[in-house]
Amino acid sequence: MPPFDVPEGDPFGPHNLPYGVFSLPGSDDRRVGVRLGDHVLDAGAAAAALGSPYVSLLARPSLNPLLAAGRTAWSDVRRALTGWVTVPSHREIIEPLFHPLSAVTLHLPFEVADYVDFYASENHARNVGRMFRPDAADSLTPNWKHLPIGYHGRSGTVVVSGTDVVRPSGQRKAASDPAPVFGPSVRLDIEAEVGFVVGTPSRMGEQVALADFREHVFGLCLLNDWSARDIQAWEYVPLGPFLGKSFATSVSAWITPLDALESALVTPPERTHPLLPYLDDTDDEPGGYDLRISVAVNGHVVSEPPFSTMYWTAAQQLAHMTVNGASLRTGDLYGSGTVSGPSERERGSLLELTWNGRDALELPAGKQTFLEDGDVVTLSAWAPGPDGVRVGLGEVTGRVVPSVSRP
Ligand code: MN
Hints:
By secondary structure, this protein is an alpha+beta fold. It has 10 helices and 26 strands. The protein has helices spanning 43-49, 55-58, 64-68, 71-86, 91-94, 122-132, 213-216, 229-235, 314-322, 350-353; strands at residues 19-23, 31-36, 39-42, 98-100, 105-107, 115-118, 150-152, 158-160, 165-166, 169-172, 181-184, 188-189, 192-198, 217-224, 227-228, 249-251, 256-257, 265-266, 288-289, 292-297, 300-303, 333-335, 361-363, 366-368, 376-384, 390-401. The strands form 7 sheets. Strands 6, 7, 8, 13, 14, 16, 17 and 22 form an 8-stranded mixed β-sheet that branches. Strands 4-3-2-1-5 form a 5-stranded antiparallel β-sheet. The protein starts with 18 loop residues before the first strand and ends in a 6-residue tail after the last strand. Bound molecules: manganese (II) ion (MN). Residues 117, 191, 193, 225, 335, 337-338 line the site of manganese (II) ion (MN). Manganese (II) ion binds at residues 117, 191, 193, 225, 335, 337-338.
């Protein structure tokens, strides 16, 4: 199917136009691409062929120059691209600049600067609290409803969808073990999340207000925060996640611009506690996104987490992340935290789906709790788009391969 004739209703139609970076077989020449249906447009070549001034932003090996160009440029480039792939008079010039997705290699689409991961699902936080602090009066910690809890992660191990994930090794110590042992994780897990990509930087000492979220954040993507629960459980007190998380974080090859998700904006859940002014979004435009996520293990869907249930919005997370004067850099990535809905089939981690290994999942290949070597985990999602057409998010997939560790 030629890309100009992408079927009406295709979730990657001209209403979507996510950005990625690709190369052609036998070449390491990386180029910004825009997805249309099951094709990718060489965006820099298109800009050059049409004499567009955006060639300086698009004929590049990563999205960073476009990310750094700011919100006005993001809107202008998107408007131009929409014209290039829909106006019939461009067809003759543009059509040869498409490549089938099956014929290209997709790369990490931007240089990841800093990486932060949050903990913004109330259902997830309560499930974890019930499992690990069963005697606590409240399954949430006292700070949870007052600030979006997060930690700084490792940007150098953010990898693009399709990259194998080597089973991590580390120390673990079950309550019954007399001493810690070292070895490959036996509780390897996933966290289904959404990642937000910062374009416009901010200065040190400056706070980014809730209302300025769209000035700074370019778009979003699916994100899998691979987690070794056994390593995490032994190391995390008192400073939080470390080696149980830092070995790999997978992101989609496609960054969906926020401009494609206007129809997906929703009001977040009712705030049950008064918020400090810098986090108070009561009178603001809706800050939630209605993203319907699906988690598949070896092709079998095990969960469908609804992003609309997230208590803290991406705007609140950005405001909180900068309230102390910490600066933003182009390419900063922050994860939403595991997305878990209220029902059992809406949980975004195997930790919750199996209740810490107590209840095995029934997969076609047999019963299973945590991930085995060879398992492939795929996150996919869609959002409501204009005129009832879905906006597809690029999937994020990864295969677990055996540990290579020495004792
Ligand atoms: Mn996480």
